[in-house]
Amino acid sequence: MADKVIIFDTTLRDGEQSPGASMNKDEKLRIARQLERLKVDVIEAGFAASSNGDFEAVQTIANAIKDSTICSLSRANDKDIARAAEALKGANSARIHTFIATSALHMEKKLRMTPDEVFEQAKLAVRFARNLVADVEFSPEDGYRSDPDFLCRVIEAVIAEGATTINVPDTVGYAVPELYGNFIRNLRERIPNSDKAIWSVHCHNDLGMAVANSLAGVKIGGARQVECTINGLGERAGNCSLEEVVMALKTRRDYFGLDLGIDTKHILAASRMVSQTTGFVVQPNKAVVGANAFAHASGIHQDGVLKARDTYEIMRAEDVGWTTNKIILGKLSGRNAFKQRLQELGVQMESEADINSAFTRFKELADLKSEIFDEDILALVSDEGVTHEHEQYRFVSLSQRSETGEHPYASIVFTVNGEEVKSSSDGNGPVDASLKAIEAHVKSGAEMVLYSVNAISGSTESQGEVTVRLQNSGRVVNGVGADPDIIVASAKAYLSALNKLQSKADRVAAQG
Ligand code: KIV
Ligand code: ZN
Question: What percent of the chain has pLDDT over 90?
Fold first, then answer.
């Protein structure tokens, strides 16, 4: 049997560090359940000591998820580590991931610590963590830019203290594949007890090489854990993308010769869920999960694929969750057909009540739209099962007037803590008027830094999916809304962003 590569998903921790991608506990739990369906080996559920919200999210996920190991990040100090262990108490399988920066630049400028102090702190942190859980991962932050001699000293010591996984982060995305692979191989060759731990790669995508570097870390360096995120979500240019690295290892098994535990047919649903929850739209030409990833526009390609699909396709679309029959349901479809379609799309609802509520919304949508596509279903169920009790604002209805030569005008009804309010405004266009009408009442003072509309299924009959990014007092949040009427979708997205701005932000930055 070939070696296995452990897939460590950090969408809920490193992914969430992207500006505006923060998620609440219910959203994180939903994504964690999807990651479990995907059979991800380790889910990094958050950074328990960073805020009460993160603690609760890690705790909730640890209690709910049974098949994946649940991990919490922790700085290399007893207080953070104890908090992580506390949050992980209910987990079937728990891991503490502790880290401290080891590059000269980070030690001197950020930590203001000497190498000897960092060495001691790393050792003590791993020792303390090992007294609380059996599975401890250690990361030398900015590892790839660290002095290899110093790194060897630190890693040998933490393995001696009982670290079971050693992760070598390319924190700033500076590595190139061959050099990164060799870097890890040299560390493994030089450190006498290196075989006592599993080696892991953690690559950022600043130069667009996170996936290539991770694969080189596996192939050349001998790493057997890859840290990655759905859609490559993450700070700056993001992290290594789970779907790409998994499909590369699977499709080119002839070259890598390694096994994976991932159930790839749940990849697309995971990608849609993360995109709709965070407001980070997936580009159409994104490998594996982009709308065009399996589309053949040119006549020559279409002809080839019809004759023999492997002329132009190296993976089967169905293997990652794309379905072949695009038009799925309509107005007359029943609850059973709807439920079956959800199963085929890899969407598992938590309760019959969630299915009923999603089905009601499906019927409402079918009244507005004659053909319902898979993408519509995925958008529709994206926040089913997520409780809304903490939401201050909810959309109720909207009317607007726009005509060539006339000034657009909108009137909107929404609830504020359950109480209906009505507000109206004019604006440069109907969307502008609608959002100004909301703002006229709410007076958030937030600055809009991004507004984007995406057609969910690619025609004018499609639902519009709108992302609004707001910034206020140093906080950045994304709101997402979907509706066949893009003005309504815009209002929903704006209200969703306001709700996120409202939620408390008391979080400590992991690498700050
Ligand atoms: O990029 C990084 O260095 C990290 C560590 C905390 C593992 O995310
Ligand atoms: Zn990172």
Answer: 69
**Ligand 2 center to 204 CA (angstroms):** 6
Task: Decide if pLDDT at 215 tops 70.
Answer: yes
Per-residue model confidence as pLDDT tens digits over 253-292: 999 999 999 999 999 999 999 998 898 989 889 999 998 8
Closest residue by Cα to residue 287 from 248, 244, 237, 230: 244
Contact 136, 167 (CB under 8 A): no
Is residue 266 a contact partner of residue 258, using CB atoms and an 8 Å limit?
A: no
What are the residues whose beta carbon lies below 5 Å from ligand 2 (ion)?
14
**Could you tell me which of 322, 490, 504 has the C-alpha nearest to residue 412?**
490
Which option is the CATH number for 393-502: 3.40.50.2000, 3.30.160.270, 3.90.1150.10, 1.10.10.10?
Answer: 3.30.160.270
DSSP sequence for 221-243: T---EEEEBGGG--STT-B-BHH
**Residues 131, 134, 135, 137, CA torsion sign:** positive
For residue 102, the CA-to-ligand 2 centroid distance in Å is 14
Homologous superfamily in CATH for domain 6-278: Aldolase class I (3.20.20.70)
- Ligand 1 atom at minimum distance from 143 CA: 3
Atom 1 of ligand 1 has which residue's CA nearest to it? 171
pLDDT of the residue at 332: 77
